[in-house]
C-alpha cells in the first residue's frame, strides 16, 4: 500500500472559521443555492417545451442517480481531506497541484458567474414585482445593488445568521410548491388524469432528451458545496457526508415530484403547448388554476425570495473559496482572515461583494438584458464549469484511493466513482455541445465561454510552475492517521 502523504499543518490561529452547523443547517444552505422554486417556475417549463415534453420529470431522476455516484466517492474522500477547499482540495490531492490550482480557478470563475447570473435575474424579478403592485419603474440594476447590500451585511456576520435566514426562506418556497403538488395530485390532475409519461421510455426519449437532461442537471448546481462548510460543521466527518446525501435526495425528489405535478396539472397532450406559450408564468398560472389568485401572487413573491436565498448561498460559498485560497497562498493572504467576533471570512466576503458590484455595474453600463443576456450567459459558463469540476473530482477519487489504499471498499472507491465519471462525461458533452444555446444562441459567446474555462484550468499549471510554494496544502491535505478500510 502506498504511503499516505504527510498531514497539512493546521491553519494559523485566527485564520480558521468556526461554527456548530449541523446537517440541517448545511442542507438548508446548499438546497437554497439550488433555488428550488426558481427551478420549478423557470426551468421546468423550458425543459418541458424544449426538451422531452411530458417525459421531462424523468430527467431529474436520471440526474440524481448520476450525481449520487459522484457523491459516493466525494463523501468517501471527505475524511481524508480535512480542508474546506472542496473541489480544488480533492482534485489537488488526487491529481496533483497543477490540476488542483487549475480547478480552484475554474471554481472561482464558476461561482462568480453563477452568482452574477442570479443577481441579474433577481434585479429583473424584484423590479417586476414592485411594478406589479403599483411601485415605481426603476432600472433592474438598482434592485440588484440593493440585494447586494443586504447580502454583504449577512455575509459579513457569522454563518449561523445566514443559515437561519435561508432556513425560513427555503421552508416558505418549498412549502407553497408542495401545497400545489398535493392539490394537483388530490384532484387527480387534468381531465386526462395523473401523468404516466415519465415511466414510459418512448416518452422520456422523445423530443430532445439531451436538452432535457442538460436543463435538469443545471438545477442541481449548489448541492456539491457542502464540503466548503467543513470548518463550521459540528462534526465534519459525519455532518458533511450526511448533508451531501440529504441535499441530493431532497432536491431530486422535490424536482421530480413537482415537474410531474406540473405535467399532470395540464395533461400529457396539452402541457408542451402551454409551456411553450408562456414558460415564465406557467407555474403561477397553474397555481391560480388549482389554488386561486392569492396563491399565484404568493408564488410571485416567493420567487424573488428564492432568488435571494440563492444569492446569499452562493455568496457564502464563494467567500469560503476565497478564504481557503487565501490561507493556501493562491490569492492574497488577507482573504484568509477571519473576523475576531463573528468568526466569518469577512475580508473574503467583502471581496465577493466587490466582484458582484463590478460584474453587475459592467453589465448595466453595457446595456445587457438582465435575463436574456446576464442570466443566460453567466449561467451557461457556470453550468459547464461546475459539471467539469465534478468530473475531475470523480477522477481524483479513483486515483487517490488507488494510490493510497486507505479505503478498499469497491463500491465507494471504484464502482460508484467510475460510474460517476461515465455519467458526468456524458452530461459535460451535452453541455458543451449546447453551450451556444445556454449563451443565448451565440456560437462566438459559447466558444468564448469554453476558452475562458480552459484558460482558468491551464492557469493552475502556470501558477504551480511559477510559485512552487503556492497551495502546498493541495498535496499535503491528507490524514496520516486514516486507517485502511477493508
From TrEMBL:
<feature type="transmembrane region" description="Helical">
    <location>
        <begin position="204"/>
        <end position="223"/>
    </location>
</feature>
<keyword id="KW-0472">Membrane</keyword>
<dbReference type="InterPro" id="IPR050367">
    <property type="entry name" value="APC_superfamily"/>
</dbReference>
<feature type="transmembrane region" description="Helical">
    <location>
        <begin position="243"/>
        <end position="263"/>
    </location>
</feature>
<protein>
    <submittedName>
        <fullName>Amino acid/polyamine/organocation transporter, APC superfamily</fullName>
    </submittedName>
</protein>
<dbReference type="InterPro" id="IPR004841">
    <property type="entry name" value="AA-permease/SLC12A_dom"/>
</dbReference>
<keyword id="KW-0812">Transmembrane</keyword>
<feature type="transmembrane region" description="Helical">
    <location>
        <begin position="413"/>
        <end position="432"/>
    </location>
</feature>
<feature type="domain" description="Amino acid permease/ SLC12A">
    <location>
        <begin position="27"/>
        <end position="425"/>
    </location>
</feature>
<feature type="transmembrane region" description="Helical">
    <location>
        <begin position="347"/>
        <end position="368"/>
    </location>
</feature>
<feature type="transmembrane region" description="Helical">
    <location>
        <begin position="298"/>
        <end position="318"/>
    </location>
</feature>
<feature type="transmembrane region" description="Helical">
    <location>
        <begin position="138"/>
        <end position="156"/>
    </location>
</feature>
<feature type="transmembrane region" description="Helical">
    <location>
        <begin position="99"/>
        <end position="126"/>
    </location>
</feature>
<feature type="transmembrane region" description="Helical">
    <location>
        <begin position="374"/>
        <end position="401"/>
    </location>
</feature>
<keyword id="KW-1133">Transmembrane helix</keyword>
<dbReference type="GO" id="GO:0016020">
    <property type="term" value="C:membrane"/>
</dbReference>
<feature type="transmembrane region" description="Helical">
    <location>
        <begin position="60"/>
        <end position="78"/>
    </location>
</feature>
<feature type="transmembrane region" description="Helical">
    <location>
        <begin position="165"/>
        <end position="184"/>
    </location>
</feature>
<feature type="transmembrane region" description="Helical">
    <location>
        <begin position="444"/>
        <end position="466"/>
    </location>
</feature>
<dbReference type="GO" id="GO:0055085">
    <property type="term" value="P:transmembrane transport"/>
</dbReference>
<feature type="transmembrane region" description="Helical">
    <location>
        <begin position="21"/>
        <end position="48"/>
    </location>
</feature>
<dbReference type="Pfam" id="PF00324">
    <property type="entry name" value="AA_permease"/>
</dbReference>
